Amino acid sequence: MKIQIDRSDKTPLYKQIAGQIQAQITSGEIPEGFQFPSERQLADALGVNRTTVLNAYKELKADGLIASHVGSGTVAVRNQNAEPVILSHRKDPMWEHLFSDHMKNQDSFDINKYLEVANQRDVISFAAGIASFELPPVQAFAGIEKELLGSGNGLLVSPVAGFSSLRRVMSSYMQKRSCFCQPSEIMITSGAQQGIDLIARAFVNPGDIVLIEEPSFFPAIRSFRSMGAKLMAVPMEEDGMDVDILEQLLTRYRPKLIYTMPAYHNPCGVTMSIPKRVRLLELAGRYGIPVLEDDPYSELNYEGPPVTPLKSMDKSGYVVYLSTFSKTIYPGLRLGWICADKKLISRLSGIRQLMDLHSGCISQQIAERFIVSGELKKYLTLIRREYRERRDIMTDALSRYAPAGLTWNRPEGGYYLWCRLPEGLSSDILVTRAAERGVAILPGTPSYLTPYKGECYIRLNYTFPPRDRIAEGIRILCEVIEELASARPEYTLCPDSEINPIL
Amino acid sequence: MKIQIDRSDKTPLYKQIAGQIQAQITSGEIPEGFQFPSERQLADALGVNRTTVLNAYKELKADGLIASHVGSGTVAVRNQNAEPVILSHRKDPMWEHLFSDHMKNQDSFDINKYLEVANQRDVISFAAGIASFELPPVQAFAGIEKELLGSGNGLLVSPVAGFSSLRRVMSSYMQKRSCFCQPSEIMITSGAQQGIDLIARAFVNPGDIVLIEEPSFFPAIRSFRSMGAKLMAVPMEEDGMDVDILEQLLTRYRPKLIYTMPAYHNPCGVTMSIPKRVRLLELAGRYGIPVLEDDPYSELNYEGPPVTPLKSMDKSGYVVYLSTFSKTIYPGLRLGWICADKKLISRLSGIRQLMDLHSGCISQQIAERFIVSGELKKYLTLIRREYRERRDIMTDALSRYAPAGLTWNRPEGGYYLWCRLPEGLSSDILVTRAAERGVAILPGTPSYLTPYKGECYIRLNYTFPPRDRIAEGIRILCEVIEELASARPEYTLCPDSEINPIL
Questions:
Q1: Residue spans per domain, chain A
Q2: ipTM
Q3: Among A10, A100, A131, whose Cβ lies nearest the Cβ of B203?
Q4: Treating both helix axes as pointing N-terminal to C-terminal, what angle do B274-287 and B243-252 enclose, rounded to 10 degrees?
């Protein structure tokens, strides 16, 4: 028997003692019938109070692990059936052998390595896709505590698809955006990511084809891949996906789903034109293919009116609209919504119940208050102005510092600039070099299905970095690009070079 | 062109007009080149202001759907490529043809039909598995608003596995329960349901075998089935699962996972004995099978000390411990946690990121405050006393009113009584009859893998119904059972009757 007391541990001493004895009995290290020292003996040996040992023994007796008999003292009791644990089985569990294809289908791209850099002190981060830290919409909370403390109502549990009152609010919210839907056509989700996951799960069997814009939102690529989908790329053009290629793919293959981000696309900032929308919807209706419209950014418009959702023109009913409060209120709420045919919403609720039952009650109430009180509208006005200015600070800085060959767009809304690097430069190398100089960016590669295809792009977020550090970050980034470009070919990629046999 | 104005609708009139014209252009009802009435003509025809029509036309122009030319007035513009929408395609989407096996693997049991009854006014509900409505732990909120409004910190975003501070708090919480784990071995989940879903997703491929106690927590059965698992039943005995049968199944098949609820089992109230725990762990270690320990109730002990988790005796590292705040704080928080090997936690984070990124920031902060302040401990003392009393009210009422042949257990903890009906009576029929009399209960069938096997059981929850209505509900329920039993064989099941050929 071996017992080690750790007085710096907050666990009560008697628990420490009992726990260690229990472990040793269970493992067979203390054999059945083992004669324990008396309470006083053990207390003296360990330098603890006698009551401490008494309590430890009491607990072990209650668990049926030891027994005291007058005359024979305290002995270990063991289940007859239990064989001693064989030490060779105490190796680390072989998790990788046990994992499902879901786990294995995950690609190896680890976004965290980029975001970890971004989270370091003093790093200027253009990598994340999150809102400004400096403008928390704290008005959303004002009064909520009083309300909740007063009644406690609405804390306990919510329907799977969300509180009826919030679904009503969201349906009239969608109506203001020209989507004439009913509350029964709304499901509240725990963010847009859950919406993508839910739709992937509802429609995609391993091997099913999903059509996706290239480049696209990379967590969507990962979600579909994790479900075993075979992804096929529809190239992006200046005014949205190439609908001619879309039609070819629809004719040649039998895709299960089309995934699109028609407004202020992440990462490339493009908005789909009306003619392309008409064509996409006509094709989806003709072939009977659901269209997942991911629309997190359409209300963050900096020029012209907000982009109207594709869903507003949906005659066939195949458009599944998805949006989130993560970009307009804040991501920590974990709240988004789906707007779709009510028959689909009802079937999706069946799966949703198995995923997380429903979205958090407090988040739902905060979002509802925030909309109904008019605070969201005010807050949108505030961040639209702020983000427009940050975008302009970034494009101005690029105009000032950009080396030859670096090009970028000027998105009319959303969160990101999409930059093309001077020819031959690799974004993966640039990411590392920029991080060393304290600037975090996202490489283009994960947004592409085709390996290396995104190497000449980087995505820059302008909403998160403090406005007074944007120009500085761009200056440093441009210096790094310049250095790498002039050091060519050492640090560059030659995608067009000959392929040599591997010997 | 057809336009209908709805003045009771909150949508601005110009939006209503623009929306309807847009829809008609898109669908082809308004053909390309269609000559629109002048603003004044349309305003007169609709009985609206001229500015209203002006604004509608402005919007349509911005969308590229109409154009005005001096001399030719306002005309509809249409994309050349778009073919008119063919009306036969406007049928309802064929969702059922499109759904994945995930969706199809869902069994047809619809818990909602039982819970809907339970939600009706004046119904005494023994059906739900939720906490008392009358004892909201509102102290959890006191002060949180001030904190959040003050800083706004911790609102924005959380790490995938949860805030570090909460993971630290949960690891010391687990240590107090004899599980000596590190914060890196904790993942915060959006409730225990998400934990089950996450584990199922990480380990189960279609066709994989999962061993599960019979009866068991029915949403777990549904989760594993939705992933395509082949479930095999390990029968429950008075002191936990039959470990001899477990061993046979482990030897004969190659299961991927063992699912167990070792403390105050839902639905049958049983706690697994120490010898069975030792044997289960030894077998899991020897065969290298992960054990999902679902432990929502162990701290709701009404007699004796709280049951120590299986995880505390886990030498092999294969135990994946799962618990939730839904039963101790409240379900609307959507907060639970997994405690497992840190290598597994890290791999699970990869999937979790695709599911919902992370659990809600406010819920995490509320739970952390509730534990650290000592409020959870106080609240547990309060609800333990309250629920023990409610359990006793229920068992006393059963002793008073029960007809011959009705038997029940007296669980030492948890939420449920598990009752066996008089022989030949069907719980599915009883559920309907009891609902008609204003009492909601849960039938035994969904908790069993084998069809009809649960027909002779019902589950009664005593935590949710108000204490002064429990005895009344039991009285009514017993009357209904008595009536059905005396009306036999009309309303009863004859599971042992001969099977006749279907002609």
A1: 13-87, 108-133+378-486, 138-376
A2: 0.80
A3: A100
A4: 10
